[in-house]
Amino acid sequence: MKIVRIEWADSYTTDKWIEKDSVVEEMGSEYIMTTVGYLFEKTKDSIIICHSYNDTMVSGLLHIPRKCVKKIKIIKKI
Predict the structure, then answer these.
(1) First to last CA, the chain
(2) Contacts of 33 (CB under 8 A, 6+ apart)
(3) Distance between CA atoms of residues 20 and 8, nearest Å
(4) What residue spans define the domains of the chain?
(5) C-alpha to C-alpha distance for 17 and 14, rounded to whole angstroms
(6) CA nearest 12: which of 26, 31, 25, 35?
(7) Residues 32-76: tens digit of each pLDDT
(8) Structure-derived torsion over alpha carbons of residues 11, 15, 20, 22, reported in degrees to the nearest 10
(9) What pTM, to 2 d.p., does this model score?
(10) Residue 37 burial (CB < 10 Å; 0-12/13-18/19+)?
């Protein structure tokens, strides 16, 4: 297993009323997140990481669509 640092674009939502002319300004640009975890699996469409594991189980799974991934850095191979 590898410990990785992933930078990825997150989604953003709001439920307040906004003037139509202000939507782009109000929503801003991309929200880039940084997550560190164990690389569980890579597929052609996504990357799955977890924060804990043992021989038979995993916990804290995060599924990130590949289109949202900006950078992946391997921190350590275990």
Answers:
(1) 5
(2) 7, 8, 9, 10
(3) 28
(4) 2-77
(5) 9
(6) 31
(7) 999 999 999 999 999 999 999 999 999 999 999 999 999 999 999
(8) -70
(9) 0.81
(10) buried
